[in-house]
Amino acid sequence: MxxxxxxxICTYNECRGxxxxxxxxxxxxxxxxxxxxxxxxxxxxxx
Length: 47
Description:
This protein has one helix at 12-15; strands spanning 22-28, 39-45. It is mainly beta and 47 residues long. The chain has one domain (12-45). It has a two-stranded antiparallel ribbon. The termini are far apart.
């Protein structure tokens, strides 16, 4: 269990079109500087 950081529950709309499981993963807000960037959660399909 992570304290102070809660992964969102993926909604049906976000995962519509996923053939396999859909999970919330941390994605850097600033893609150009991922080391110093803040992170947010995004639902990602796994093929």
